[in-house]
Automatic annotation (TrEMBL):
NCBIfam families: F420_Rv3520c
Gene3D superfamilies with a match to the protein in the record: Luciferase-like domain
Protein name: FMN-dependent monooxygenase
Keywords, ordered alphabetically: Monooxygenase, Oxidoreductase
């Protein structure tokens, strides 16, 4: 099981720790470093900055939001950074949810997310393979554009720049069983959310994964003496995502928590958060749930829990690790 460093997205501003942490992860032998985006910092610019300050570690997006860019634009970002970094890019994509897609990007959330994802990946792969001009006549993506307001002058084009790697890995963030099943068919890897080594069935059937397919869940990792205190950042994250990252009637994160055996608790967290009682929402997150999707506690406890992560289909553990000591301990335990 390889290790990756997950840095997430910026809060109020850039973190001065991100580049030093990425450099330390590279020194310790971590395989990859990952950035993210929501409705603030973008996913590619910080990764490019990290690329300029490292030499070996692979560079992943977890995730680049599909609504933020047309698929050809995303492919342009990926192939450009892949050249500049010497072939280190892992392109992770995700749909996000209606709240962000329609509220932030000002675009309709697709009526058929599976179809929209499939078409998006198709366009990206066509750009990267550069075998012919990009041509798609899809429900959500059309190249050339043929909508009712088209001029009719659009021309199918092939990238001027030759991609460094036509097989640049494409991973998908997927939560629902149907989305996960499609991911296993059309992508090179999967970025699970809230992975529990004890509940893989929550995502659907994960048998017969093809050789080389990446399963790369993200988990908060924290070496500390007090487990309850160490779980608080995990619970804070869960309270925000389950309570606030989605509408009361449509929240994919809350739905996933429900499928993992915490249906009643997920709805209570939602209700408290939407009522403005955010501290109560965080405290309502069960310690047991926060614990099973993270690696928190003394070194010996993390070592024991790490064994269950190695036994399943996980190929890459993407650690949300807050400090260099935690990175070092995790690297030592994973040897």
């Amino acid at each position: 099981m390889r290790l990756g460093l997950a840095l997430g997205y910026w809060g109020r501003g850039p973190s001065p720790d991100h580049v030093p942490l990425a450099q330390e992860a590279e020194r310790l032998g971590y395989d990859s470093v990952w950035t993210a985006e929501s409705w603030g910092s973008d996913v590619f610019t910080p990764l490019t900055w990290i690329a300029a300050h490292t030499s070996r570690i692979r560079l992943g997006t977890a995730v680049a939001q599909m609504a933020a860019r047309s698929p050809t634009t995303t492919a342009m970002h990926a192939l450009t950074l892949d050249h500049l970094s010497g072939g280190r890019v892992l392109l992770g994509l995700g749909l996000s949810g209606p709240q962000v897609v329609e509220g932030w990007y000002g675009r309709p959330f697709p009526a058929s997310p599976l179809t929209a994802t499939r078409e998006y990946v198709d366009v990206v792969r066509q750009v990267l393979r550069r075998e012919a001009p990009v041509a798609v006549d899809g429900r959500f993506h059309s190249h050339p554009y043929r909508g009712p307001d088209a001029t009719g002058l659009g021309k199918a084009l092939k990238s001027i720049t030759h991609p460094l790697r036509p097989d640049l890995p494409v991973l998908l963030g997927a939560e629902g069983p149907k989305n996960v099943a499609q991911t296993l068919r059309i992508a090179d890897g999967w970025l699970p959310l809230y992975w529990s080594p004890d509940r893989p069935e929550a995502y659907g059937t994960l048998e017969d994964l093809r050789e080389g397919f990446l399963v790369a869940p993200m988990a908060q990792v924290r070496v500390c003496d007090d487990v309850a205190e160490g779980l608080l950042p995990v619970k804070t994250m869960l309270g925000f995502y389950i309570g606030g990252m989605g509408h009361a009637a449509r929240n994919f994160h809350a739905d996933l928590m429900g499928r993992m055996g915490y249906e009643e608790e997920a709805r209570r967290i939602q209700r408290l958060f939407l009522e403005g009682r955010r501290e109560e929402a965080v405290l309502a997150v069960p310690d047991a749930f926060a614990d099973e999707i993270s690696l928190v506690g003394p070194r010996e406890r993390i070592a024991e829990k790490l064994e269950s992560w190695r036994k399943g289909p996980v190929t890459d553990l993407l650690a949300l690790a807050p400090d260099a000591r935690t990175l070092r301990v995790l690297a030592e335990l994973n040897t």
